[in-house]
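Posting for a labmate who doesn't have an account.
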Amino acid sequence: MKNGLVLEGGAMRGMFTAGVLDVLMEGNVSFDGVIGVSAGAAFGCNFKSGQIGRTIRYNMRFCNDKRYCGLRSLLRTGNLFNAEFCYRTVPEQLDLFDAAAFAANPTAFYLVATDIEKGRAVYKRVRKVEGDDYEWFRASASMPLVSTPVEIDGRKYLDGGITDSIPLRYFEHIGYEKNVVILTQPEDYRKEKNRMLGLMRLSMSQYPRTLAAMERRHTVYNETLDYIKEREEAGRVLAIRPPQALEIGRVEKDPERLKAIYEIGRSVGEKNVNRIRDFLTESGE
């Protein structure tokens, strides 16, 4: 029975996920496969490369760096998070991503992006991370309104969360029968209709299928939360959630706030690591 790890996005709420993942790495907890969306992919790749502490380290180091993210980057490049700095300079020069360890780890790694012309989720298995492979991570995490579409092999992509924020069903579909799902919202959370839809209709007018996905995203998301609870009751999912809403901005400039959210993740991870081990070793029969 294959087991999987499903990582929701949520921009800097991903510091919570990073804390949980570091505890799992320290405890040598492994999975047959991992799938991440947006920040879940951009930060979750460090789980496969085995780099404990890397996510919180480089985010604290660069959160106030104008080269990393901010209005200057948005005005100059069309991307709030500077593509060259975030996806090349940091992992290749300033805080090295261990691409060799990522490739050597037998755990399968998938990410989700949205094909904006088709308005559909694309599930990409990433076997190595070098050169242009980073573009898939950038595509998965490129938020509408503050990112330019990422073109890969003639197709245009944006944030995977537009079309599949929590890809549990996909992982089950490809054979992962038991899954740990790390969410970045508390148990009582329900998504509401996006208040920025008016601006999105203007900026994404040439992509009507993706606009339609954006308009129904809150409904799909809430249905997925209901499905997760069903699978929990069936013993096939273990969901890990923050105990309360995470007080952090989508773009956070305070390194201590990043650290505080990370520490919440570590605390939740430490409380649940044995529970996760037990869940993964149960037969499920």
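Reply:
Got it, the structure tokens are right above this. The chain has twelve helices and eight strands.
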